[in-house]
Design brief:
This protein is of the alpha/beta class. The chain is built from 19 helices and 16 strands. The strands form three sheets. Strands 2-1-3-4-5 form a five-stranded parallel β-sheet, with helices on both faces.
């Protein structure tokens, strides 16, 4: 394969230099994957499941209410469904309520599962630090197998625990999502039980959605899984997913990683954010002849619209309360618990400051739930961990965290975080400067439909493999016109020599209004893409930043 010099430059910036690495990265059939038996407790975990099935045990899959947990639950139900097809009543799933139960295993759910007569709980996307809950399940006479991918920052559960981040793990790639770990277990079960490999192919769509939905880096083994998973999505093999794709306005057979991240994942998440994530699992497990399928799709689309409405209301309420401080910690009693994390991210983007939203915990008088998002260079997890004595529950990572605390401790937390951020700013005065990096400069003559097509070889795009950003220098902007009901977008052309480049600027028309209309030359930075419009293929430059 002859590689364009621009593509080679971009690959080199991503640390991909050798011929072998380049061919693997660009291949439509990548091979980078690892032996699942390298994962800790994998063989023993698979053997436990198979032995319990032989013993006639009843098995409960215990998941989580986000897209990763939803897809991981669906995957395990699908694979174990092949092994237990003669007694489907002995295989069920349980997803806790975001509102009444929160994330992970809890004693009330374990008692409920026990009372329904189940013998084995298999967790997906949760459970690594559920030491007390696992002990309780075992005291009731049940067995527990944990499959998870979260960083283990507390005392580990004392049971079989399949997690690439478990201390002592020799698995070469640590960044699998929860659904990815479930897939590795499925690979082991398929081989040990002699099942057809087609049962693995048919769940790769779920792995792609879970990986993108949990914002895992699209590199290494994840890139392999997502590339194949997107093919399965576009083959339309899963009836419920196909109906959701159509209902959400996407084109079947032409679904990209961006479509998954910005359309499919929010719809799946909406069930758990508004009401009950089990509905999304039911959608993904649905067969083509399910008379409820259209109702399920309609319900999920409705819940996503409701999520958007509540998100807008919550954002407005929080912005009215926001004080322009270096750490935005907002107490908003009107905030919706299922939406607050998204809103925290939007406020973080608006002010470019770490942001935490606190609201009353549903059904728990005197307690607040908090959720936060952070900017590059500031670890929200490390900041909050300094004050973990104030938290009843706490978890997360550098970019996002959640916690439960007593209402009376809110002001102390706020004072502590403002003091901490002041120290960070003093040691790094540029920490709040927005970063607008670009990969390389392009001459206008380089901006061609052929290059746009070649750039697609670098997809799927996402965390760890963002769309390439180019700077085009010293060009004149022409024919600017606003777009959208509120005029916050703009369309214009760049005219340089004989080259005309169609450009689109989203959400920043007001910010750059002077530069759009002054007739002077400017630098622009953004990404190049092709799209189909009314049956015609066209190229456009998506502008992210304009430099005077």
């Amino acid at each position: 394969m002859e590689i364009n010099y621009i593509i080679k430059t971009l690959l080199s910036k991503r640390g991909i230099d050798s011929e072998e690495e380049i061919q693997e990265f660009l291949s439509p059939k990548p091979r980078k994957t690892y032996d699942p038996l390298l994962l800790p407790d994998m063989e023993a975990g698979a053997d436990l499941i198979l032995q319990e099935i032989r013993n006639g045990s009843r098995i409960m899959i215990y998941g989580d209410y986000d897209a990763d947990g939803i897809t991981a639950t669906t995957l395990m139900m699908s694979v174990l469904g092949h092994l237990m097809k003669d007694r489907p009543e002995d295989l069920e799933y349980y997803i806790p309520s975001r509102f009444g139960e929160g994330y992970g295993l809890n004693p009330e759910a374990i008692r409920f599962i026990h009372d329904k007569g189940f013998d084995l709980i298999v967790t997906v996307d949760c459970g690594s630090v559920s030491k007390d809950e696992v002990r309780y399940a075992e005291e009731l006479g049940m067995k527990v197998l944990v499959t998870d991918h979260h960083t283990i920052t507390d005392t580990m559960a004392e049971c079989l625990l399949i997690n690439p981040k478990k201390p002592g793990s020799v698995y070469p790639f640590k960044e699998l999502c929860g659904c990815g770990v479930a897939f590795k277990l499925a690979q082991t079960l398929q081989k040990k039980a002699g099942l057809p490999k087609s049962i693995l192919t048919e769940v790769l769509d779920l792995v792609a959605i879970g990986t993108i939905g949990d914002i895992m880096p699209l590199v290494d083994e994840n890139r392999t899984l997502v590339k194949y998973g997107l093919k399965v999505i576009n083959q339309g093999m899963r009836p419920g997913l196909k109906e959701l794709i159509i209902g959400a306005g996407l084109t079947p057979g032409n679904v990209s990683s961006e479509n998954v991240g910005f359309v499919i994942v929010p719809h799946l998440n909406a069930s758990g954010r508004i009401e009950d994530a089990s509905w999304a699992v039911k959608l993904l497990l649905s067969k083509g002849n399910d008379p409820e399928l259209s109702d399920i799709v309609d319900d999920i689309i409705f819940k996503n619209k409701e999520r958007k409405r509540i998100q807008t209301d919550t954002y407005r309420a929080c912005m009215e309360l926001a004080e322009n401080e270096d750490f935005m910690i907002i107490r908003c009693d009107a905030a919706h618990e299922g939406i607050a994390g998204i809103v925290a991210g939007k406020i973080k983007d608006h002010f470019y400051r770490p942001t935490v939203i606190c609201m009353p915990s549903q059904g728990e008088e005197g307690l607040l739930k908090g959720t936060g998002r952070s900017i590059e260079g500031i670890s929200l997890y490390e900041m909050l961990k300094k004050h973990e004595e104030l938290f009843i529950k706490f978890g997360g990572h550098s970019g996002a965290c959640g916690f439960t605390m007593k209402e009376e401790d809110f002001e102390e937390l706020k004072k502590g975080l403002l003091r901490d951020i002041s120290e960070i700013k003093e040691s790094d005065p540029g920490v709040f400067e927005r970063k607008y990096p670009w990969d390389m400069d392009l001459d206008p003559d380089d901006v061609t439909p052929e290059l746009a097509d070649k750039l697609e070889l670098l997809s799927p795009f996402g965390n760890g493999n963002p769309k390439p950003v180019f700077r085009i220098r010293n060009v004149r902007l022409r024919d600017a016109r606003n777009m959208g009901a509120d005029g916050k977008h703009a369309r214009f052309t760049v005219h340089e020599g004989s080259r005309y480049i169609n450009c689109v600027l989203f959400n920043k028309a007001e910010e750059y209004s002077d530069m759009l209309n002054d007739g002077e030359k400017h630098d622009i930075a953004g990404s190049l893409e092709t799209q189909f419009w009314q049956g015609q293929k066209r190229m456009q430059f998506i502008v992210e930043n304009m430099i005077d």
